[in-house]
Amino acid sequence: MKNLTKHRLLFFLKPGFIVLLLMWSMGVNLMAQDDTIHTEVVKTKKVVKNTFSGVWIMDNQSVMVPIKGTFEMDIQHRFGVVNNGFHDLWGIYAPSNIRLGFNYAPVSKLYVGFGLTKEHMRWDANLKYAILQQTKGGGMPISLTYFGNTVIDGRDKKFFGRASDRLSFFHQLIIARKITEKLSIQVSPSLSYFNSVEGYLDENGDAHKKMKNAHFAISAMGRYKLTPVTAFILGVDQPLTQHPTNNPYPNVSFGLEFTTSSHTFQIFGGNYSSILPQVNNVFNQNNYQNGQFLIGFNITRLWNF
Fold first, then answer.
1. What is the pTM of this model?
2. Domain span at residue 150?
3. Using CA atoms, how far apart are residues 41 and 57, in angstroms rounded to an integer?
4. For the CA atoms of 23, 26, 30, 31, what is the dihedral angle to 10 degrees?
């Protein structure tokens, strides 16, 4: 019996068994370490918050999509151009354009809403979806959001041959990055489409379009925080499509933004006098080189349910 016990003890002390035991022990240890590393990586990949303070950057949508259960009301106002000077108080007493909008986030990453604009009494229905979100710790380097709308022109039916001629559409991809706690930028290519555009007859009586139905453009926007609640905002909108006549002018805009937990207020100067994006991109005739700027402001109020 003693010899058997001694034999078993010698077996456990053999080098091969000791190596196997060490390898098994190291494997368990490495697996535990791997689990720890994996857990730490997951914990560090948090979504970057507050790339921009609100859903608007002057005349453009920002990359932001509010959290589920958020209800939003927008008041957007554009005065007249400043060129008439004191005659109309630098456009403040000139005819203005106004939009009232309402949006809601029924599920995470999705925003839907509608609005009514004074100019031509245009109704719009819009949708915004966060496709990608920038993360901390080396995960996703950018945020990517889709924005689109459908607009119905509310003018008298005499302006349209068919009901579908009232419709226009807008599609945009918003690519953004929060570079530092103070600086954020975004670039947004877009497509505007009008079912009906104005035409003319040439000397032979042949009909031609003054503009193309589809229009491509790109915008670049930036925000730099001056204080925790104040920021400087800047943007450029550049048309890309060349039309037969009436090519639109670019938009250069700049202003200040003030935020609270539930409000965003922006006051700015720019060339766009319309508010709906496809109308601005296709029909803007205010030339910044001629000083045709106007003052605008956006007020956004948020509620969470």
1. 0.83
2. 45-304
3. 33
4. 70
